[in-house]
Amino acid sequence: IKASAKSLQDNPKCNAIWTEENIVQLKSSDIAVAVALEDGLITPIIRNAEKKGLEEISLEMKEKAQQAKDKKLLPSDYTGGSFSISNLGMMGVESFDAVINPPQSSILAVGSSIKKPMVNERGDICIGEMMSLTLSADHRVIDGAVGAVFLGSIADYLLNPLRLLI
Predict the structure, then answer these.
(1) Active site residues
(2) pTM for the whole structure
(3) What DSSP element (H or E) covers 118?
(4) In this predicted model, what pLDDT tens digit does every residue of 104-152 receive, in sequence order?
(5) At a CB cut-off of 8 Å and minimum separation 6, what does 40 contact?
(6) Rounded to whole angstroms, how far apart are CA atoms 146 and 142?
(7) What DSSP string describes 123-151?
(8) Would you give the DSSP letter of residue 110?
(9) Rounded to a whole number, what is the distance in angstroms from the first to the last CA of the chain?
(10) Handedness of CA 156, 139, 34, 51 (dihedral sign)
């Protein structure tokens, strides 16, 4: 959530929604996160995530997920935002494509972390952890090149987590 929020700030063209009249640029990184319920999905929003610390985001997300399961979310808790995250990796799904929630312009599909053979910086074969991230984007708002830079930004924050503490 924090990596996505910071990446939206770094790539403001991606922090936008599509309306019938125009593209609306948003200032804050309001991140919707998919929560599975017995009768479907709901996406509570962590508002101003770019301004919050990791612990605060974690506690707020746990609280919103519980409220969702208890059916205590208000419409203001799950409407808005420009971006969603769907994590099926926690259910063992290696890779998938997520569907955009209009009027949001993109969604990140997070797959599971799995051990795979890799080549390290010295050229040696070793076992490493790999995780799939797939960005689905509305090309009316985010073209492929802009989306690629945005996804690279998210990956860079995840590969360099100390940058999330700044």
Answers:
(1) 139
(2) 0.93
(3) strand 106-119
(4) 999 999 999 999 999 999 999 999 999 999 999 999 999 999 999 999 9
(5) none
(6) 6
(7) S-EEEEEEEEEEEEE-TTTS-HHHHHHHH
(8) E
(9) 15
(10) positive
